[in-house]
């Protein structure tokens, strides 16, 4: 499932291509992907202008000139692709939004969705999310206060969207590795120094993920050289048996709360 760095990469690339563009056509091939009757959805979106594309946690928000927004969650398997000048793709599209010669295809949204919401509905939908991990408001002091209230395994806390929004399975493992903490370690057993190191690792790993374009291995458009760059730079994720980059011991694959988890049991404590 795409996490914060992947969705931030999408936001940046789509903003460059589509922000300020007028929707000239809308096609919905899977009714369950949208939250309105198909004809109503098309009528509300077609001819509108996407004034901005924003991100909140793992969501993308396409702001329309009507004051309403399209809220996207890709879930498992979802992706987007922009085709220009008559290009196409053989995969089934759940929704296609056309901007003149550009077509934005939403693909693989069997579990994901694209909902049209008012400002009030959008605020309510996102109201349970925790703070953005890279927001200036999440200072180390604020983070320590939030950590003091947490119980349970460290990884479980990191992927809890009500605690901090945007971190998922991959980056939780990468953060724990960078902080030299075992993902199954209980949060109430962490020292203040551990928590400060964890905070700094969250900042470092997520910024690195964004800089490298996240781990999604399908580009956003023909010629996109950014998307998926993180795949070749993972510390531990999906590297079972590979030597740890710090100590050389083999990376372990385990499960924590039914989530596959990767770590080094020698240099993570």
TrEMBL record:
Superkingdom per UniProt: Bacteria
Sorted UniProt keywords: DNA damage, DNA repair, DNA-binding, Glycosidase, Hydrolase, Lyase, Metal-binding, Multifunctional enzyme, Zinc, Zinc-finger
Record's catalysed reaction(s): 2'-deoxyribonucleotide-(2'-deoxyribose 5'-phosphate)-2'-deoxyribonucleotide-DNA = a 3'-end 2'-deoxyribonucleotide-(2,3-dehydro-2,3-deoxyribose 5'-phosphate)-DNA + a 5'-end 5'-phospho-2'-deoxyribonucleoside-DNA + H(+); Hydrolysis of DNA containing ring-opened 7-methylguanine residues, releasing 2,6-diamino-4-hydroxy-5-(N-methyl)formamidopyrimidine
Domain Formamidopyrimidine-DNA glycosylase catalytic: 2-98
Cofactors that this protein relies on: Zn(2+)
EC id: 3.2.2.23, 4.2.99.18
Transmembrane segments: none
Any one Gene Ontology BP term: base-excision repair
InterPro entries: FPG_cat (IPR012319), FPG_Glyclase (IPR020629), FPG_N (IPR035937), H2TH_FPG (IPR015886), Ribosomal_uS13-like_H2TH (IPR010979), Znf_DNA_glyclase/AP_lyase (IPR000214), Znf_FPG/IleRS (IPR010663)
Keyword field contains Transmembrane: no
Matching PROSITE patterns: FPG_CAT (PS51068), ZF_FPG_2 (PS51066)
Short name of one Pfam family: Fapy_DNA_glyco
A GO term for molecular function: 8-oxo-7,8-dihydroguanine DNA N-glycosylase activity
Domain FPG-type: 235-269
Subunit structure, interactors included: Monomer.
Family according to the record: Belongs to the FPG family.
Name listed for the protein in its UniProt record: Formamidopyrimidine-DNA glycosylase
Organism: Halalkalibacter okhensis
């Amino acid at each position: 499932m795409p996490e914060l760095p992947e969705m931030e990469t999408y936001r940046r690339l789509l903003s460059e291509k589509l922000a300020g563009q007028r929707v000239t056509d809308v096609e919905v091939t899977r009714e369950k992907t949208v939250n309105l009757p198909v004809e109503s959805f098309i009528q509300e979106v077609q001819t509108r202008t996407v004034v901005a594309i924003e991100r909140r946690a793992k969501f993308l928000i396409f702001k329309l000139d009507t004051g309403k927004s399209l809220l996207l969650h890709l879930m498992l398997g979802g992706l987007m692709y922009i085709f220009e000048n008559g290009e196409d793709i053989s995969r089934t599209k759940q929704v296609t939004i056309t901007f003149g010669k550009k077509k934005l295809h939403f693909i693989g949204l069997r579990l994901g969705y694209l909902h049209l919401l008012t400002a009030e509905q959008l605020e309510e939908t996102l109201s349970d999310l925790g703070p953005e991990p890279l927001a200036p408001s999440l200072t180390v002091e604020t983070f320590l206060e939030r950590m003091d209230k947490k119980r349970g395994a460290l990884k479980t806390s990191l992927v809890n969207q009500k605690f901090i929004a945007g971190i998922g399975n991959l980056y939780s493992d990468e953060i724990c590795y960078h902080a030299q903490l075992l993902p199954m370690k209980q949060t109430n057993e962490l020292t203040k120094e551990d928590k400060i190191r964890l905070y700094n690792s969250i900042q470092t790993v997520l910024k690195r993920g964004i800089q490298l374009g996240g781990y999604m291995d399908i580009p956003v458009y023909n010629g996109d050289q950014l998307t998926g760059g993180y795949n070749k730079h993972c510390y531990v994720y999906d590297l079972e048996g590979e030597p740890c980059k710090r100590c050389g011991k083999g990376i372990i694959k385990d499960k924590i709360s039914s989530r596959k988890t990767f770590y080094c049991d020698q240099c993570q404590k």
